[in-house]
Write a structure and sequence with these properties.
- The protein is of the alpha/beta class.
- The chain has three domains: 88 residues, Arc Repressor Mutant, subunit A; 118 residues, Periplasmic binding protein-like II (D-Maltodextrin-Binding Protein, domain 2); 91 residues, D-Maltodextrin-Binding Protein, domain 2 (3-Layer(aba) Sandwich).
- It is built from 14 helices and twelve strands.
- Strands 4-3-5-12-6 form a five-stranded mixed sheet, with helices on both faces.
- The chain is elongated.
């Protein structure tokens, strides 16, 4: 532990430097983010190494990798900086109408494309100077249990690669603040006029050619798990890496696909894609906004969380208000 004399020589900027290098894993990119020279970053790392008695980051051909000690320190450093940022933010009250902050929201594309339209509408009126970045989150491959599939997303959140994460699972560790935005279910989508819309039976479902959204190209998913329980299977004729791509393909082919209901309600009509209820039971997913509890001390971030979790998010999508209904 550092004693009081040691603490008096600490430059808080060294912790900021540690945080950025830990995120970037590269001295040059870290220097760009910090608006410093690479030599200045290297010099700062030297001071940190002397202060903490550990190499912290080891050089590799592609950048740097953290030592075990750096991995242990990363969460504590993030918490310290979050508290400091929270203290500083209270010195100047956060005013969304005057703020020019930029927030990064991490979410799978089937979620971000649902929450973004109402958020942008809110920002346009209440916070015109605030900018938003969307970071696509993907489940960790090889894990079917949700808390393992999304563990990397939570780690990125704690590493401050983003300000908030929105993920489709409920078992959130207690160190995080959680707010349920909505509950998602899957429906069967196809181009307008598809024969399945007139005869949405399980038998017909299995006879059709299917499209699966998979960023890895894996053809098997939760639909196949439910079909297997009934001794059934389907042909996956095509995989695509995201949901928007899926809508454009469905509009031009005879393929069908299991897609998130809210997503289809918001975006399906402009692609000419219609959805019907699935002819077999499919799991429902709670969509939760997640942020480290310590980060909620930041008044600006707390405002963003409140905005995303407001009743506006629960309003019926624009396309559905015009008369689009899931059959």
């Amino acid at each position: 532990m550092l004693n009081q004399t040691d603490l008096s020589r600490i430059d808080l900027n060294l912790l900021v430097l540690f945080e950025i290098v830990f995120q970037e894993r590269h001295v040059g990119r870290s220097a760009q983010r910090l608006h410093l020279s690479s030599s200045a970053v290297s010099h700062g790392l030297g001071r940190l190494r002397a202060l903490l008695g550990d190499p912290l980051f080891l050089k590799t051909p592609k950048g740097v990798v953290p030592t075990e000690r750096a991995l242990q320190l990363s969460t504590s450093v993030a918490e310290i900086l979050a508290r400091v940022r929270g203290v500083v933010s209270t010195a100047i009250p956060f005013d969304p109408r005057q703020s020019t902050r930029r927030f990064v929201i991490g979410a799978p594309d089937g979620i971000s494309s649902v929450i973004l339209p109402p958020l942008l509408e809110t920002l346009r009126g209440a916070a015109p100077g605030i900018d938003v970045g969307i970071r696509q989150l993907l489940p960790t491959q090889g894990f079917s249990v949700p808390h393992l599939a999304w563990k990397d997303a939570l780690k990125e959140l704690e590493d401050r690669a983003m300000d908030v994460a929105i993920v489709p699972f409920d078992d959130i560790p207690v160190r995080f603040h959680k707010a349920k935005l909505y509950e998602e279910e899957f429906v069967i989508a196809s181009g307008k006029g598809h024969s399945f819309q007139r005869n949405p039976t399980l038998k017909r479902f299995c006879e059709l050619e299917h499209l699966v959204v998979s960023h890895t190209g894996d053809v098997s998913g939760f639909v196949d798990v439910e079909l297997a329980k009934k001794g059934l299977s389907r042909r996956v004729a095509l995989t695509v890496p995201n949901f928007m791509f899926a809508l454009s393909v469905l509009a031009e082919t005879e393929l069908v696909s299991a897609l998130p209901k809210r997503f289809v309600e918001v975006h399906g009509v402009r692609f000419g894609v219609i959805a019907v209820k699935a002819p077999l039971p499919l799991p429902r997913f709670p969509i939760n906004l997640v942020v480290p509890k310590v980060a909620m001390m930041d008044a600006g971030l707390a405002w963003l969380v409140q905005t995303l979790a407001s009743p506006r998010t629960e309003e019926r999508p624009r396309n559905q208000r015009r008369g689009m209904h899931i059959r």
